[in-house]
Amino acid sequence: MTLRFILGDQLSTSISSLSDLEGNDIILMAEVMEEATYVPHHPKKIAFLFSAMRHFAQKLLTEGFRVQYITLEDPHNTGSLTEELSRAIEGFNPSRIVVTEPGEYRVLSLMKGWSQRFGLPVEIRSDDRFLATHKEFDEWAKGKSQLRMEYFYREMRKKYSILIEKDGTPIGGRWNFDKENRKPPPKTLKVPKRLSHKKSPIVQEVLALVRRRFGHHFGNLEPFHYAVTAEQANLELEQFLNEILPFFGDYQDAMVAGEPYLFHSLLSSYLNAGLLLPLDVCRKAEAAYQAGKAPLNAVEGFIRQILGWREFIRGVYWLHMPHYGEQNYLQATRPLPAFFWGAPTNMFCVAEVVRHTQEHAYSHHIQRLMITGNFALLAGLEVKAVQEWYLAVYSDAYEWVEMPNTLGMALYGDGGLVASKPYAASGNYIQRMSNFCSHCSYNPNEVLGEQACPFNALYWDFLARHETRFRANQRMRYMYAVWDKFSGEKQNAIRAEARKVLQRMANGNL
Ligand code: FAD
Ligand code: DLZ
Ligand code: SF4
Questions:
Q1: What is the phi/psi pair of residue 334, to 5°?
Q2: Ligand that comes closest to the CA of residue 428
Q3: CA proximity to 490, closest of 453, 455, 464
Q4: Residue 301 exposure: Cα atoms within 13 Å on the Cβ side
Q5: N or C end of the chain: which has fewer CB within 10 A?
Q6: Does ligand 3 have an atom closer than 6 angstroms to the CB of 214?
Q7: 400, 350 in Cβ contact below 8 A?
Q8: Domain 134-194+223-320, what fold?
Q9: Domain boundaries, the chain
């Protein structure tokens, strides 16, 4: 008999570890403190995952399979994946263990120790829910000093023949329609109301558990509207394709106060936990284009996020682990300020994104990248602390996807492996792409003085202090040309202002 161990983000019936499942096999699933607390996960993330795990186990049980499900408060629960496996081996005496590779290097290291520890064969299968194999990605990356998503994405489009004409050229004559995307927020905006799923008894039980055991973690547990089954996640996908996808491209980078979701799909938590499959989502988006339901710029842009960015990011993680996470190219060491955990700040943009995060365990990409990420980059916040924050507070966060996005994309901590230049921006960008500044007590057009937007002095100071690293970067020439036009006196005043901003941050009154 085979024991098959399913992790909390492997909730797909097509997962490779179940592909040859037989009636007599045992499927093990375990809620363990080690996974729930290795960073202080947002209560909504834990509630989502435990609810989805319990529903998945129930589905397997109703299909007649043998499931050993260990709840967090099971009196015998040892609190770790390895020890729960040990108990199951003692109880069922299997002849072998089958697992699908995990999403984190930390867990892969555990798995690699299991065969020796238990004296049993342990088969670690590849995770074929992803669309590029490790081998494919590694071969593509071989010999390249810089990895650029765009070229990898084109290979993926060809591989899966998505938005490709019969002659092999991209539909619409171009691979990328971003020129038509990224509009500032419209003056009047009608954002569709999102689905709110009825809470099953399982969800209600999990909410009570999470309230009891993890209520002290940062983040609001309720209201809780998440989909927790594949069926519910598919309803979210349908709503997105029908009502939201047409606007996805246009307003992908826009930010609006009080509107955490805008026209984003909110599908990442479901994709990452396995309730939705990436290829299925891409094919359905393509079908929406072919049926004339959404324009090409929106559909191509959306598919690129999944077929391109998501796969690329995963490839980078596995190609460079374990040393990837140890990098800190810009030597950023300042402690994370308390306003990342909800303490007050006068910076409306930061407060708003943290508030979205606290309430929903979600904020959209540009908020993660250009508000909290940009602030962390400019202020030189400690890379590990920032990463831990992103891993804890978002319901879609697992290290394989969080780390290259945070360390690589937002913090330039890998020295340019993921991003061709740092995503550093002043208040000017935030003013253009959002309506945040009109709610803020700081002035985005001022660089000096108590009322000046803190992003401004920090931005110039960032360029100045990392001049040796970035002056030669072609994509940053314009920024240095502007800096060079400032008089020496003005440059000194700006750098002194940046020091004051950082001091105010350290004193807790920014
Ligand atoms: P949409 O905007 O609707 O995009 C559609 C889908 O594309 C997403 O569901 C996601 O699966 C995929 N996608 C888009 N951008 C990326 C990307 N850069 N990397 C990987 N997949 C992408 N995403 C996570 O899934 N988990 C994380 O822990 C995570 N951490 C991030 C940290 C930082 C600092 C930044 C800048 C980005 C991070 N992202 C992460 C990427 C991105 O912000 C989220 O995938 C996205 O905001 C999820 O919301 P959505 O489903 O509405 O996405
Ligand atoms: C994120 C998470 C949490 C909060 N809890 C569990 C759990 O109790 N049991 C489990 O199997 N998985 C959990 N997970 C997901 C794992 O952390 C995830 O599988 C690994 O990080 C590998 O991606
Ligand atoms: Fe953010 Fe500066 Fe705009 Fe205030 S003025 S919202 S701090 S960018």
A1: -75, 140
A2: 3
A3: 464
A4: 23
A5: N
A6: no
A7: no
A8: 1.25.40
A9: 2-125, 134-194+223-320, 338-507
Determine which residue's CA is closest to atom 21 belonging to ligand 2.
104
Whether residue 427 has its Cβ less than 6 Å from ligand 3 = yes
Burial of 118 (0-12, 13-18, 19+ CB in 10 A): middle
Q: Which three-class secondary structure state does DSSP give residue 27?
A: strand
Task: Enter the tokens of residue 447.
Answer: 């660089």
Classify domain 2-125 at the CATH topology level. Answer: Rossmann fold (3.40.50)
Domains 2-125 and 134-194+223-320 share a fold: no
Q: What is the DSSP letter of 172?
A: G
Is residue 339 within 6 Å of ligand 3 at its C-beta? no
pLDDT in tens, 282-324: 999 999 999 999 999 999 999 999 999 999 999 999 999 999 9
Tokens of 460: 């110039």
The whole-angstrom distance between residue 471's C-alpha and the CA centroid of its chain comes to 30
Q: Is 325 in the pocket of ligand 3 (CB under 6 A)?
A: no
Tell me: the pLDDT tens digits for 45-71?
999 999 999 999 999 999 999 999 999
Output the residue whose Cα is nearest ligand 3's atom 3: 437
- CATH number for the domain whose boundaries are 338-507: 1.10.579.10
Alpha helices in 291-398 (DSSP H): 296-303, 311-320, 348-360, 365-367, 374-379, 383-393
Where is 155: in which H helix or E strand? helix 149-160
Q: Which has the minimum average pLDDT: 70-79, 98-107, 146-155, 458-467?
A: 146-155
pTM of the model: 0.97
Which of 475, 482, 467, 370 is closest to 426 using CA atoms?
A: 370
